[in-house]
Amino acid sequence: MKMKKYLLALSLGLILVLAACGGSSDDSKKDDGDKDSSSGDKEVTLHLAALESAYGADVWKNIIKAYEGINENVTVDLTIAKNLEEVIRPEMQAGNYPDIFMLATSREEALTETLIKENGVENLSDVLTMTVPGEEVQVQDKLLDGFTDTLATNPYDDGEMYLAPMFYSPTGLFYNAALFEEKGWEVPTTWDEMWELGEKADKEGIALFTYPIAGYFDTLIGSLLYASGGPELFTSAMTYEEGAWQTDEAKRVLETVEKLSEYTHPNTVANANPNDFTKNQQLVLDNEALFMPNGSWVVDEMKEAPRADGFEWGMTAVPAFEEGGDQYAFTFFEQIWIPKEAENIDAAKEFISFLYSDEASDIFLEAGAVQPIEGNVDKLDEQKKLFYGIYEEGALPAMGTFASTDPVPGASISDELYGKVDSIMSGKLTVEGWQKAIQEVSDKLRPAMK
Amino acid sequence: MKKSKGMRTETLYKIFIYVTLIALVITILIPVAWVFLASIKENKEFYGSPWTLPDGFYFQNFVEAFVDAKMGDYLLNSVIVTGLSLLILLVVALPSAYVLSRFEFRGRSLLNSFVKAGLFINVSYIAVPIFLMLLDWDSVLKVMFGDGMLLNNRFILATIYASTALPFTIFLLSSYFQTLPSDFEEAASIDGAGYYKTMISIMFPIAMPSIVIVILFNFLLFWNEYILALTLMPGDNKTLPVGLLNLMAAERAAVNYGPMYAGMVIVMLPTLILYILVQKRLTQGMTVGGVKG
Amino acid sequence: MSKKRSRNIFIAICVSPAVILFTLFMVLPTIEVFRMSLYNWGGFSKTKEFVGFNNFKLLWNDMNFIQSFQNSVLLIVLVAIITIIFAVFFAAVLTKEKVVGGNFFRVIFYIPNILSIVVIAGIFSAVYDAKSGLLNSVFGVLKLDTFKQMWLGNQDIIIYSIAGALIWQAIGYYMVMYMSSMASIPESYYEAASLEGAGKFKQFTSITLPLIWNNIRTTLTFYIISTINLSFLLVKAMTGGGPDGSTEVFLSYMYSQAYGNSTYGYGMAIGVVVFTFSFALAAIVSRITKRDVLEY
After folding, report:
1. Claim to verify: residue A99 and residue A241 sit in the same structural domain
2. With a cut of 70, which residues of chain A have pLDDT below it?
3. Whether A285 contacts B48, CB under 8 Å
4. By the 8 A CB rule, do A276 and C129 touch?
5. Considering only B31-45, B269-283, C183-197, which range has the smallest mean pLDDT?
6. Count of the separate structural domains present in chain A
7. How does pLDDT run across B68-95, given as a tens digit for each residue?
């Protein structure tokens, strides 16, 4: 029975694709608030595949209900799982692609990256100029500045958006604000102040630093690169430019991480694995370590954990290298995208444009998911406002990720750049060795860049 | 004098033995008890030391695992798939193991070396090729009958489970059959029993101890398997280990530890019960590459 | 003639179902794995590029693969040797000594083998925990602070911590295997040796060990297969291959390449190497441990 339904959907989808092909590209432009124009009068079944993350599974069910409410011709089938890649990969290898993926980059399984590498992601630039269903404005007018012109949304660095930004969280160094108040310490704004604080804290038996797992250095090193050499350095590192890691600015970043290892809580590396990383986060809650790189999700993640009396979350941007220098807070965000092989590309784009409507973003906000939409920050509760307001307090936003390459066997930049942090922390690896490893893998990836 | 010294070393030896035995028992019982205790803890109890006793009996964990995570439904599925797999496995493996170990024929040594090589094939890399193959067949079926039916099919999953377990099972059963003296068949032949009768009513009952072993080993294997189950059953008919994944942590979300451990207990209990039921037979049946009696 | 024919038919009927299933679901997919190892393929696109043995050449120079190779071999050797010592010892004690509650011990010892690997990962993460772990607490109580370790943090130690968990899991299983063959050694052998004045240890080395030798040899193959498989599952659940690849094993590296790095063909090449290596290793081990079979 299920199979039959599925077949029906499949053939319907096929008809739609044929229709879309026949109507050429005009179809998407015709879309001016009248929903029926692009999807026609035909019934469409969209298949949405979403990662079940901190925001839960119900949020997507509510979104779908809302969308089906305003768009009677569309039914949305939802696949939601915590191990989405494992669930969906076989289906895709069989040629059954979902129409929409809510799945970010930088995940262990790297399904999104694989599709990018294989040129399997649909260009979404025209979504930006689509009118949000039920509203008078275009998608691009609602989005915050800067969210659609980094490698995280434009992986081929060609000005075209392939991955639409969905939920974002500012990241930075998290700490116990109450502890700082109690001890009369200032939150450091430069690394020199940081090391001073490290000495002070050491006398009290508190470690300066810990981190959940090495992967969390993606945002910390990102911010450090920005702070050290500005967007130019970050871009040259992310595009594997020759000699990028040999520069003094880049070396300074690596050396800072090495110096941090002297102040890192001794149990950190032992707990820096997928099974035990919450124990490292617990160190901050227990006043055993001062700072950890993290994102605003950590508050909910640890909400049931016991904590020191009067504990109060604080978050600061990554310190600057010089007095008065730039401080950055990396923005982590999750993308939504359409695979090229999807059967209902136009209907899928329309669905995505709906996700930026006020109605949808309120549903997301209720579940704690914040989109980079103008005015969203004002709707947040006090605690969240504190995190999301970090950019209003002088921190500069940093965004982006590695440029996409063709797959290169055995060469993984994140293993070398972030994975090796564990070895730096344990003293097994020197900055020179680290630098060399990053340089080598960059050399391998550079010729494979798109 | 001399004798008492002998006695002393004897007692010392005994003490040594008991100490080591009890030490091993402790290292096993404590962690296992730990899992059971963890399953009745409340979520907030998981953040401190892992060795504190539960504050109370928090039964809600099991309710959540059974109802919200649908472990109850998946339990039934697991029972069906595991049962079917064992049945298919025994029906296929027993006759072939018997023939391969007790009959001389052309191609026998080739088949035996295939069985040996099969031991080294790992499910984790053939899962995707199997899936793609089923898919190809499905599309042929669709053309012929208008419907495919190889995926999300418990019977197919069971057949594949049985197939992947064939090398080890045939290997184990053959080793047992080899240790039996040839008198059995000779006697049966004099009584006028044919090949089939000899095999089914004489040899199989004798092999009972090692059949029990095969059932236990493969039960554990099938019951805990999840790579194939995940790949070949994308629909609603999930098995327990796949369901257990849903109780694990979500990305950047608080872990629901209690239900997770409750889920583990639900997966673990049937294997414990089966083991306690059959453990008496365990030592009788395992004569892999063993001494001939 | 007809008797021979009916015999052949009997053989064919008995063997063919197994042959068919084995060919369909084991041989064909394995051939597919071998074939894919010759291609460059990300996993989804329709373009597969034939590259011959290039993937294997790259493997040869891939330091991360070599590290995972070393880790796997180390684990196989450690787990096999230590488990054999413990399992044979406990098997001998439980069969030869009149131990009170022998049956109880036998039942308990086998339990680790029936636990799922996720449970074992959870247990050992609590045992190895740096702060409140069982191991460090015990050393703390015994005032042996020098033995306290970062069991999962020290990159020189962590692979042994993994081995410890695997051995704990395996002892009972192999013990039961050795017990069954020890149980079939006639008691008269030991009585005769005892009369000649041979001590317990002497009896063990001259009677028990030679007579169960073939059994031990066979289990060596099992150690190879199961260590490769279980170390992958354990590492995936417990350490994620870290810190910095120090617990990466064969199959975990295969996974991260086939999926995480979008190089499916390369991952399959690793699969081929693992298959060939384990097969060859088992053959070599079986050859060099061959002794004249002692019959009695």
Report:
1. no
2. 1-41
3. no
4. yes
5. B269-283
6. 2
7. 888 888 999 999 999 999 999 999 999 9
How far, in Å, CA of C69 to CA of C250, rounded? 6
Q: Is B120 helix (H, G, I), strand (E, B) or coil?
A: coil
CB contact under 8 A, A118 and C42: yes
DSSP state string for A206-227: -EEE--S-GGGHHHHHHHHHHH
Q: Is residue A387 part of a domain?
A: no
Give the C-alpha separation, C153 to B81, whole Å: 40
Is A314 strand, coil or helix? strand
Distance (Å, whole) CA B32 – CA B26: 10
User: Are residue A67 and residue A215 in the same domain, yes or no?
Assistant: no
For the record, the structure tokens of B184 come out as: 């059995």
Token code pair at residue A58: 């119900």
For residues A228 and A252, is the Cβ–Cβ distance under 8 A? yes
Whether A175 and A312 share a structural domain: yes
Do both A338 and A300 map to the same domain?
no
Residues of chain A with a CB closer than 8 angstroms to some CB in chain C: 85, 89, 92-93, 108-111, 113-115, 117-120, 213-214, 266-276, 279, 407-412, 415, 419-423, 425-426, 428-429
Would you state the pLDDT for residue A36? 42
Q: With H, G, I as helix, E, B as strand and everything else as coil, classify residue A173.
A: strand
- The 10 Å Cβ neighbour count of residue B185 is 18
Q: For residue A407, which residues of chain C lie inside 8 Å, CB to CB?
A: 40, 42, 261-263
With 0-12 CB in 10 A as exposed, 13-18 as middle and 19+ as buried, what is A369?
buried
Look at residues A305, A325, A327, A326 and name the one whose alpha carbon lies nearest to residue A315: A327
E strands, B167-238, are: none
- Token look-up 């191609």 returns B107
Please report whether residue A19 resides in a domain. Answer: yes
Q: What are the structural domains of chain B?
A: 59-285 (1.10.3720.10)
Instruction: Give me the residue label for tokens 């809600």.
Output: B60
Q: A301–B253: do the CB atoms touch at under 8 Å?
A: yes
* CB neighbourhood size of B7 (10 A): 10
Residues of B (210-249) whose Cβ lies below 8 Å from C: 220, 224, 241, 244
Contact B100, B115 (CB under 8 A): yes
The CA-based dihedral angle spanning residues A383, A385, A388, A389, taken in that order and rounded to the nearest 10 degrees:
-130
DSSP C204: I
Are residues A55 and A38 part of one domain? yes
Residue C9: predicted pLDDT: 93
pLDDT of residue A225: 96
Which pLDDT value is given to residue B159?
96
- Asked whether residue A27 falls in the same domain as residue A75, the answer is yes
Omega within 30 of 0 (cis) for the link into A409: no
How many angstroms separate the CA atoms of C115 and C168, rounded?
11
Q: Give yes or no for B110 touching C (CB within 8 A).
A: no
The answer to whether the CB atoms of A51 and B47 lie below 8 A apart is no
Walk me through the domains of chain C, giving residue ranges and CATH numbers: 54-288 (1.10.3720.10)
Domain that holds residue A45: 2-168+332-381
Q: What is the ipTM of this complex?
A: 0.87
A340 within domain boundaries: yes
Strand partners, A171: A295
Q: Output the pLDDT for position B170.
A: 95
How many CA atoms lie less than 13 Å away from C195 in the CB half-sphere? 5
Are residues A323 and A337 both part of a single domain? no
Clarify whether residues A162 and A260 are in a common domain: no
Tens digit of each residue's pLDDT (9 = 90 or more) over B90-117: 999 999 999 999 999 999 999 999 999 9
Residue A339 placed within a domain: yes
What pLDDT score was predicted for residue B179? 80
Task: Please work out, in degrees rounded to the nearest 5, the angle formed at the alpha carbon of residue A61 by the alpha carbons of A57 and A64.
Answer: 140
Residues in chain A: 450
Under the banding of pLDDT at 50, 70 and 90, the label for residue B50 is confident
Cα separation, B248 vs A52, whole angstroms: 11
